[in-house]
Amino acid sequence: MKTKIIKQKVRFKASPLQVYSALMDSKKHSGFTGEPAKISAKEGGKFTAYGDYICGVNLALIPGKKIVQSWRASDWEDGASSTVTFIFSADNGGTLLEFLQEGVPADDAGEIKQGWIDYYWKPMKEMFEA
Question: Which of 15, 16, 25, 92 is deepest in the core (most CB within 10 A)?
Answer without folding.
Answer: 16
